[in-house]
Specification:
The complex is a heterodimer.
Chain A: H1 4-22, H2 27-47, H3 49-54, E1 59-62, E2 77-80, H4 82-105, H5 112-131, H6 135-153, H7 162-191, H8 196-203, H9 209-226, H10 234-241, H11 244-269, H12 276-298, H13 303-324, H14 327-358, H15 374-388, H16 394-408, H17 412-437, H18 453-471, H19 473-489, H20 491-499, H21 505-508, H22 527-546, E3 567-568, E4 571-572, H23 585-590, H24 592-601, H25 606-627
Antiparallel strand pairs in A: 1-2, 3-4
Chain B: H1 2-22, H2 26-47, H3 72-103
Helix pairs in contact in B: 1-2, 2-3
The chains are: A mainly alpha, B mainly alpha.
InterPro entries (chain A): CPA3_Na-H_Antiporter_D, NADH_UbQ_OxRdtase, ND/Mrp_TM
GO molecular function, one term (chain A): NADH dehydrogenase (ubiquinone) activity
Protein name (chain A): Multicomponent Na+:H+ antiporter subunit D
Chain lengths: ~625, ~120
């Protein structure tokens, strides 16, 4: 059991190397290696649930058995507490489903051996990041992650903009990595250790200007990796140009790695959430992130770019909830992180399926695909309902918790923004559903077929998980979220396991009690009742449709009767699908100054994006120096 | 004098960021990234430096009670960081070659097909 974490990481890296050696010639071999490596890693991590989540152990592993000497950590240690494991589970599920999806999805690409090598490296580095207990190891892992992610962004380099997106990602990513490295080394210069447990113990109530400076650098660096708003503009480009299975991995685990690092930093390393000003900083950037993300998404015309902006917006919810820093707020944040992985992964997979079937993701070219791809349309609707927060799907649960947490913390304006963002999310998914799956189908898509089974299976697994986490929030909270929240709020245990018993108690004092989240406050909301209502409505609609109640037969088909057709200037209009651009033009017109400003701000020039990142870092540094005592 | 190191590394980092922010040639932006990297490497080495310390490698005959080392950990970190920096530069340069082939220019103002 003690060796599971390191084995789960090493398996993925080993898979990458084996793919280089044996997989370069044979397609089957490389698929086999990728599948075996990702499933072994999945099984090993899932086997950690029982000891870590339920029995509440913390697993520690010293590389090369270099244990601490005289209470001083000298080796590199892995430490898996329930917070790390929570993100680990998110990562391995994403990896496994994404690999299964890519088997058929990448069949038209050449050189897929490089794809699997980079993908396995990306996966291994994310797992390494969430399982490590060493600050510098975190930097190395995040750098491997950026590196592999850039390679994968440019994988389809014949596509419009893929190279450009990769370059932007690389430049911004290495600015982030430089900030992280500078922060790490500044901490090292103060405390002379890199072990996170020991740093956490040494920094408690012991903040100097140097460590505060390091905090600002690390926070900015990890925010850049999580793509919160002023650092975000490389993200939509990268998500849009990468293959969809990779976009899913980006929003499912690369983003989450940044979120994990922020949580680890503010809660565990610095105990910073006792400062009101740090809470406020996280809540402000979170709120800005969710608002800017969703308004940018409203104006997009590309399916994947739109999803990318929604991804940014949902990360805003997570950061806001994490910033609230009560047990309820952290529960909301982690729950939303889990749900975001599920529904956004699902939506990116449907985007991949649409691309696989039609060869485009442009909202203005697609239409009426629900007739040809009914299963993709069904899972898309589940994903869209989930992200928009409709009950009984999972987005509702976590968004409700976010509203509740922010409102209880006397942050009513934030609650209102969160509600507004949720409404706009729904609006933009109405637009997507209308312009891709419903309405009139363009002539060139007559021969479109449903995607193959191996692509549908991951989508259905994600969809089922979306429904399950929506219907059984009590189980999810009890077995996954609450242990993770407890690990984030009770740092003492994390330190004790690594440094020996009693090390933390003399510094930290008593552990914090985690109140049980019982969903009593959720009012009249009963997920099972909503599911029954949903099923009844679905049944009713089906029965009416089957019984001919909608009477579709009486409508003219294929222009039997010209009086039902759409006319334009006296002439029958041949093709009159309501496109993505045609929806919400009133809203866009009324807010044209805002949209114009935001469009100009995302200018696509690397220098501008770098300026945003460095400017925001400066603001972080100044803010933290001025407001944190 | 160790202070010179700190001043130099801050100058390197600031110059690197200046290049990234103001130069429109993508190749120069990558040189800027390199400068930031070198500045941080110098910072790491300077943090581990003890005036008068020897290299952290010894044999039994050399070890005397009055001898002391420079901190070996930052040196290991610097090595890692240099390797990563070299990889990033190589990757960025390969991207630049491809961009030059595809766009026909290295001007950051023209390499902006993805925007808005």
């Amino acid at each position: 059991m003690q060796h599971y974490p390191i084995l789960s990481i090493v398996t993925l890296f080993l898979g990458a190397f084996l793919t280089v050696i044996f997989g370069s010639k044979n397609e089957t071999v490389r698929k086999f290696i990728a599948l075996v490596a990702s499933s072994i890693s999945l099984i090993l991590v899932l086997m950690l649930i029982k000891p870590v989540m339920i029995e509440n152990n913390v697993i520690q592993y010293w590389m090369g058995n270099w244990r601490p000497i005289h209470d001083w950590a000298i080796g590199i240690g892995l430490e898996v507490d329930s917070l790390g494991l929570f993100f680990g589970i998110i990562a391995v599920v994403t990896i496994f489903l994404s690999i299964v999806f890519s088997f058929r999805y990448t069949e038209k690409d050449s050189e897929t051996d490089k794809y699997y090598v980079l993908f396995l490296m990306l996966s291994g580095s994310v797992l390494g990041l969430v399982f490590t207990g060493d600050l510098f190891n975190m930097f190395v892992m995040i750098e491997i992650m950026t590196f592999a992610a850039v390679g994968l962004t440019a994988f389809r380099n014949y596509q419009e903009g893929a190279l450009e997106a990769a370059l932007k990602y690389l430049v911004l990513g290495s600015i982030g990595s430089s900030l992280v490295l500078a922060g790490t080394i500044t901490i090292y210069s103060q405390v002379h250790t890199l072990n996170m447990a020991q740093i956490s113990a040494l920094l408690f109530n012991n903040l100097t200007p140097s460590t505060l400076f390091a905090f600002a650098l690390l926070l900015a660096g990890y925010s850049l990796k999580a793509f919160v708003v002023p650092f975000h503009p490389a993200a939509p480009d990268a998500y849009m140009s990468a293959p969809s299975s990779i976009s899913m991995a980006f929003s499912g685990m690369v983003n989450k790695a940044g979120v994990y690092a922020i949580i680890r930093l503010v809660y565990v390393l610095y105990h910073a959430m006792s400062f009101k000003s740090i809470q406020l900083l996280l809540i402000i950037i979170g709120t800005i992130t969710m608002f800017v993300g969703v308004t940018m998404a409203l104006a997009q015309n590309d399916f994947k770019r739109l999803l990318a902006f929604h991804s940014i917006s949902q990360i805003g919810y997570v950061i806001t909830a994490v910033g609230v820093s009560t047990a309820l707020g952290l529960t909301a944040g982690l729950y939303h992180a889990l749900n975001h992985t599920l529904f956004k992964g699902l939506l990116f997979l449907t985007a991949g399926a649409v691309f696989y079937a039609t060869g485009t993701t442009d909202l203005n070219k697609l239409g009426g695909l629900a007739k040809k791809m009914p299963q993709t349309a069904a899972v898309f609707l589940i994903g869209a309902f989930s992200i928009s927060g409709l009950p009984p799907f999972n987005g509702f649960v976590s968004k409700w918790l976010v509203y509740q947490a922010t409102y209880q913390a006397n942050l009513a304006p934030v609650t209102i923004v969160a509600l507004l963002v949720s409404v706009m999310t729904l609006a933009s998914f109405i637009k997507v559903a209308q312009s891709i799956f419903f309405g009139q189908m363009p002539k060139e898509f007559e021969n479109v077929k449903e995607v193959p089974l191996s692509m549908r299976i991951p989508m259905w697994i994600m969809a089922i998980l979306c429904v399950l986490t929506g219907i059984f929030p009590n189980f999810v909270t009890k077995y996954l979220i609450s242990p993770a929240v407890s690990a984030a709020l009770n740092v003492g245990k994390y330190i004790d396991i690594m440094m020996g018993n009693g090390y933390a108690e003399k510094i930290l004092g008593k552990p914090v009690e985690i109140p049980a989240v019982d969903y009593v406050l959720a009012g009249y909301w009963n997920p099972v009742a909503w599911l029954v209502l949903f099923a009844l409505l679905l049944l009713a609609v089906t029965i009416v449709a089957v019984a001919g109640g909608f009477n579709t037969a009486s409508l003219p088909v294929d222009g039997d009767d010209s009086k039902y057709e759409v006319f334009f200037g006296g002439e029958a209009n041949e093709y009159s699908h309501v496109k993505g651009n045609d929806l919400f033009w009133g809203l866009k017109y009324d807010l044209r100054h805002y949209f114009g400003f935001m469009h100009d701000a995302h200018s696509g020039i690397i220098n501008d994006y770098a300026l945003w990142a460095i400017f925001t870092t400066t603001i972080f540094i100044v803010y933290i120096f001025l407001l944190v005592p | 004098m160790i202070l010179v190191n700190y001043i130099a590394c801050i100058i390197l980092i600031v110059l690197g960021f200046y290049v990234i922010l103001t130069k429109k040639n993508i190749l120069k932006i990558i040189i800027g990234m390199g400068l930031v990297d070198y500045g941080i490497n110098l910072l790491i080495i300077s943090i581990g430096f003890n005036p008068g310390g020897t290299a952290p490698i010894f044999t039994f005959s050399e070890l005397r009670p009055e001898s002391f080392f420079v901190d070996p950990v930052p040196q290991a970190l610097t090595l890692t960081s240099i390797v990563i920096g070299a990889c990033v530069t190589a990757m960025a340069l390969s991207l630049v070659i491809k961009i030059k082939e595809k766009y026909g220019t290295l001007d950051a103002d023209k390499v902006r097909r993805l925007n808005g």
